[in-house]
Specification:
Elements: H1 3-9, H2 11-29, H3 34-54, H4 57-80, E1 84-86, H5 95-111, H6 113-116, H7 119-139, H8 146-161, H9 165-184, E2 188-190, E3 193-194, E4 199-200, H10 209-237
Antiparallel strand pairs: 1-2, 3-4
Length: 246
């Protein structure tokens, strides 16, 4: 097993790798313009593409669904609605593959052997963390975070009743780091109020990870259909066998 394959398939190594890439990549983004963002985007797409080589077919399908659904949500939430804005007022091209890496990080986090045998503890830790964060946003932080508390309540519901709570919990912790770090260094900023509603929002909101739950649900639900469609297309494109061929 090569070093790249080992990193992608070993949960702890993959989580460490994406942590380093996220930290360094966002720090670099804070110092560059559009051309620099394009370079960062190529690197992010390249890392995700290399990871795809060593993923299972189901993981590839799930990650692909997340990238597509999350990118649509970014266009609506940032570009059209303005719930949050990126530093240069655009949608950086490293964001779509970044969503795929966040999903895979959450998935791999839930697969770490020590945590896999303690899935319930991981879920409880996520519930406690997001609930505490929501309460701080409502009653302690200077910037009121009502929208975040609503999202946090949705996330807790899915952590309790959802189809894959350990994966949701892993994604929550990955997103929590990403949101806190990304807003801290100014890569993006959340609006003080959700546009058109007057609902106060945090920067970042405590329930930001709730959106990722819907991406995960889409991935888990649609991935089998994606795999089926891909297999059907490959079968149709396969050249017919010559008469008498074995």
């Amino acid at each position: 097993m090569g070093i790249v394959e080992r990193v992608v398939r070993t949960p702890v190594l993959f989580c460490l790798a994406t942590l380093l890439i996220t930290t360094a990549g966002l720090a670099l983004d804070s110092q560059v313009g559009l051309r620099g963002q394009l370079v960062l985007a190529l690197c992010t797409w390249g890392f995700l593409g290399v990871a795809f080589i060593y993923l299972t077919p189901m993981e590839r399908a799930q990650t692909s669904v997340v990238v597509v659904v999350a990118t649509c949500a970014e266009i609506i939430g940032s570009v059209i609605w303005g719930v949050y804005v990126y530093r240069l007022g655009n949608l950086p091209l490293f964001v779509p593959p970044g969503h795929g890496l966040v999903y895979l990080t959450g998935l791999r986090l839930s697969q770490i052997p020590w945590l896999r045998t303690r899935g319930r503890a991981l879920v409880i830790a996520a519930i406690a963390t997001v609930s505490g964060w929501a309460l701080l946003g409502l009653f302690v932080f200077e910037r009121k975070d009502v929208a975040g508390a609503i999202g946090a309540a949705v996330l807790v519901l899915f952590l309790i009743k959802g189809r894959a709570p350990a994966v949701y919990a892993g994604v929550f912790f990955a997103v929590a780091y990403l949101e806190i770090y990304g807003t801290w260094i100014g890569t993006w900023e959340w609006a003080a109020e959700v546009p058109g509603t007057g609902i106060p929002d945090g920067n970042p909101p405590s329930g930001a990870a709730s959106g990722y739950v819907f991406f995960d649900i889409a991935a888990l639900s649609l991935a089998p259909a994606v795999l089926g469609a891909w297999a059907s297309m490959r079968h149709r494109l396969r050249p017919p066998r010559a008469p008498g061929a074995t």
